[in-house]
Amino acid sequence: MQQDIIVIGGGIVGLATALRIKETRPDLKVIVLEKEREVAVHQTGNNSGVIHSGLYYKPGSLKATNCIKGYHQLIEFCEQENIPYEITGKIVVASKPEQRKQLEDLYVRGQQNGLGGLKKLSLAEMKEYEPHVTGVEGMWVPQTGIVDYKVVCQKYAEKLRSLGTDLHFGEKVVSIAKGHSLSIVKTEHNVFETKLIINCAGLQSDQVAQMSQDEKINLRIVPFRGEYFKLRPDKEYLVKNLIYPVPDPNFPFLGVHFTRMMKGGVEAGPNAVLAFRREGYKKLDVDFKELWDTLAWPGFQKVAFKYWQMGLGEMYRSFSKSAFTKALQELIPEIQESDLVEGGAGVRAQACDRSGGLLDDFAIIEDEKVINICNAPSPAATSSLSIGETVSIMALKRF
Length: 399
Prior knowledge:
By secondary structure, the chain is α+β, with helices and mostly antiparallel strands. It folds into 3 domains: 2-45 and 150-218 and 360-396, 3-Layer(bba) Sandwich (FAD/NAD(P)-binding domain), CATH 3.50.50.60; 90-142, no CATH class; 223-353, 2-Layer Sandwich (D-Amino Acid Oxidase, Chain A, domain 2). The longest helix is centred in the last third of the chain and has 22 residues, at 298-319. Strand 1 (2-8), helix 1 (12-24) and strand 2 form a beta-alpha-beta unit. Helix 1 (12-24) packs parallel to helix 5 (149-162), helix 2 (62-81) packs across helix 10 (380-396) and helix 8 packs across helix 9 (321-329). 33% of the residues lie in helices and 27% in strands.
């Protein structure tokens, strides 16, 4: 089966990339290969559903530019396709005096990224937005919203089919062989020929990338599980919309926070613990080969040495509901352990380079035959249509 482009991965980035390509060049033969039985099974289907504003990201970075552009494209798409969403706004809270400087830095960064309407808040002003919150200072971010990204992906898939794109499910890629004019993509069940491969395999993106590269690639996906609790229905009144802490500037996670969900309920979390397998959504999910690959990676060893105290704290919160509750009480003191019921979990595909850098920006490895999207963590869902547009421009230069 000969194609012009094969997109590997039926998550939100893969689907958006295929969609942007077909919208621009409907004449091209494009297919999507997904190893699961439906779209958005992994990162996309297990996140908190936040529409990110672009507040946190370094001005001019791929994250910043794609998030801000993608934000507007996502909202326009939801409007056109009647997908429910809400622009709720959120508050970012400095719980301690020493966090005021970080909050100020965030305020400046948000302005640099073009966010209008940011407001610094006193505690009394924060309580006008979230009556049960506490802290020494805060910031109102009006652009933040919520949506169900699985519903967004289902609509992407529907539109792709209407444009003549086949989505092949249950097709796990096992090898890639680049040829002079065509490359061969083998799955567990079929063989496909294509002029171009676009790898959007998320948690498996580095493994798929290595299939097409002669030399060892200089990064590894390190899986971090984020675990959530939910507020009991009778305690949901404690949170009106979204409440975030000031994040640690040295760690690429936003800290435990409260999020009202588009599909109902309020989530609290996530923490960030090393997952013992790439698709390890439960504490005791272990794949010893994958775990060894992570532990043996020189970059991870450097990360572990640098962040071991923080890592132990996250692991402790994973196994101690009382410790998790204590972290949440920094934002809402009224929260009690009994107010929390176990929620779901997601696994973040965090790229780590050999030197121990946790990549903050999107990472793309390409040659004439393959484009590998090797790091597309949050806010990739918000940014998906913009990322898809960016990758489609890269791809269509070859046609």
